Amino acid sequence: MTPKTKHTTLIKTEAKRLGFLSCGVSKAQFLEEEAPRLEKWLKANMHGQMKYMENHFDKRLDPTKLVEGSKSVISLLLNYFPSEQQNPDSYKISKYAYGTDYHFVIKDKLKSLLHFIQDEIGEVHGRAFVDSAPVLDKAWAARSGLGWIGKHSNLLTQQVGSFYFIAELIVDLDLEYDTPTTDHCGTCTACIDACPTEAIVEPYMVDGSKCISYFTIELKDQIPTEFRGKLDDWMFGCDVCQDVCPWNRFSKPHREPLFDPDPQLLSMTKKDWEEITEEVFQRIFKKSPVKRTKYSGLQRNVKFLKS
């Protein structure tokens, strides 16, 4: 067994032990195919008010600009599909936000993995990324053979679906690289047909400025009135394109206690959300990604849905 093979096997075994769904590796190099797609998306202003998407264009496409001397991108998936879901007569929260903020949960696991690599292999330099830096997570995961990018622009995996987080370790270690998988969307257009705001403007291209997740999380202004009645009761994020995807019939509940929701969140009705106090908001969403929208943002979203 070559050192590359040995090290790769070691890393993948430890990733599994840490609770990751899967782990794939790709060569740290410039993302040639993604460059024109990203440029086209930005020029069409599909990022709306997410101005940060315009920053660090080169770094988004080249991991060697993020980690000096990097040779490998280790991509990891972590399941978040819940065993129980919200009361159906309620305003909805995206399933990824039910429990503790994934940034904290995954960052800890990535740090453990990096320390393990350094302890077992030696002096390895690297950085952990959980969608808070200019890294094209889905592109790297697809290159690493962990799935293909579906028509809704999310990563999809056979037998698993798409309800998982993607994270990376970019390291200056030579590893054995995986090969991309094939696209299994076929002629299916379920996600395109179901999107309430018609944000999937063509297969594999989402206009972020029309997406319900954008309106309910990223947008700081008032939600445009032309989308009244089109948000399908989503008050934080949106799962429609994933919920209708045939591959998500295979989703299995996660086994990460930190992703379990506050029991009150699951039972709340529309009336409860309309009357929620800041104190209850702070308690239910103490460590949740929902804190990003703040109490005032959630109130704005609920009022918009009610109007």
UniProtKB/TrEMBL annotation:
Its cofactor is cob(II)alamin; [4Fe-4S] cluster. TRNA binds at K220. Residues 173-204 form the 4Fe-4S ferredoxin-type domain. It is found in: Cytoplasm. One of its GO terms (biological process) is tRNA queuosine(34) biosynthetic process. Pathway: tRNA modification; tRNA-queuosine biosynthesis. Pfam families: Fer4_16, QueG_DUF1730. Catalyzes the conversion of epoxyqueuosine (oQ) to queuosine (Q), which is a hypermodified base found in the wobble positions of tRNA(Asp), tRNA(Asn), tRNA(His) and tRNA(Tyr). Belongs to the QueG family. This is Epoxyqueuosine reductase. It comes from Flagellimonas alvinocaridis.
